[in-house]
Amino acid sequence: MKRVLLVLAVVVATVVGCAPGAAPTPQPDTPTSTPGAPFVQPTPSYSVEVTKDIEYLRLLAPDAPVQKIDVYAPTEPGPWPVVVLQHGWYQSKETPMYLSFAEELSGRGVVVFVADRRSPCSTLSECVEDDGMDLREVQESWACAVRFARENAADYGGDAEWLTVYGDESSGLESAFMGDDLRQAWDAVASNRGGPPAQTECLATEGSAHVDAFIAYGGNHRYYQNLTESDPDLWALTSPFGLIGRNPSLVVRLIHGGMGNPTNIQRAEELQEELLNAGYDAYQMLLGEARWRIPASGPDREELIQLILEEALP
Question: What are the Cα distances from residue 251, in Å, to 9, 212, 269, 294?
């Protein structure tokens, strides 16, 4: 249905977009193709202004760095849909893959927030040390990024009444399920275990951490499965399978490259089935020739961009 609405929005914008005082409507280009013709990557419709390195989060650990966020916004007045781009576990917001993707997406008519958050642990055994302190830091960081986007989107022409998160390597899916309940959920576990305490201080105090739609690209949705027996409390706070039932209105799109890890693709199919059984709006799909990275160009990249545009429109 949204795919139909997106097409209708482009048609309407063509008819009325020149009316005096009319706000621009996102008009994503769709490629026109002739059988046998090479694919031509569409040109973004809008110029983009990038605001770099805004402080959005203080880490409470001693001597920890302040975390920062970038904003990519069309230079024309909105209101524009809002997307929070969350990078993969070992990446950063300065990774060229994210710089180009955020700018291209914004050029299609989206305000894009790209936050940095550190990865304090590198293996599951390290992540569960100290009662999962590092896991709590990561989840709270992503929630702070969503709060910041909601609170500040209007300053960049965005309308954050509906907020979409794109999580590379499925980053932030756990935070999307818990939303504003994240700190309370962790506090309840911490009170029974003696920790971990809160790890962050959000610099946005009025925005909500509620996520309306989540697009997960890649990732292993069963990464925390071993915790079901060794630490069921942490499993229930970290595994998307353990979080099913929270935020029941969350729209979930599970995307993998068609040439990605077959086991991870199978696990996405399993998660989709459980989400559908629980009543979520969820589907799983593959991008033809893509692997685990965001496609650099071509039809797979365009399909991913169109999917994000479709879900970002309320």
Answer: 21, 6, 16, 21
Burial class from Cβ neighbours inside 10 Å (0-12, 13-18, 19+) for residue 91 reads: middle
pLDDT score, position 92: 85
CATH topology of domain 45-312: Rossmann fold (3.40.50)
Instruction: Give per-residue pLDDT as tens, 113-171.
Output: 999 998 888 899 999 999 999 999 999 999 999 999 999 999 999 999 999 999 999 99
Which of 90, 202, 183, 185 lies closest to 145 in space, CA to CA? 202
Q: How many helices (H) and strands (E) does the chain have?
A: 11, 9
Rounded to 10 degrees, what is the CA torsion of 35, 40, 46, 48? 150
Pairing of strands 48-59, 200-202: antiparallel
What pLDDT shows up at residue 36? 58
How far apart (Å, rounded) are the C-alpha atoms in residues 27 and 109? 7
For residue 36, CA distances in Å to 28, 33, 55, 67 come to: 23, 8, 49, 48
SS3 content of the chain, % helix, strand, coil (to 5): 40, 20, 40
Q: Is 2 left (phi over 0), alpha (psi -120 to 50) or beta?
A: alpha
Q: Please, what is the angle between helix 298-312 and helix 2-16, to 10°?
A: 80
Q: By C-alpha distance, which of 281, 293, 224 is closest to 256?
A: 293
Strands, sheet with 111-115, edge to edge from the N-terminal-most edge strand: 200-202, 48-59, 67-74, 111-115, 80-86, 158-168, 213-217, 251-257, 281-287
Give the pLDDT confidence score for residue 72 in this predicted structure. 98
For tokens 């760095």, the residue is 65
Q: How far is CA 77 from CA 42, 173, 289, in A?
A: 22, 31, 36
Distance CA(33)–CA(247), nearest Å, equals 40
Q: What tokens appear for 280 in the block? A: 């979520």
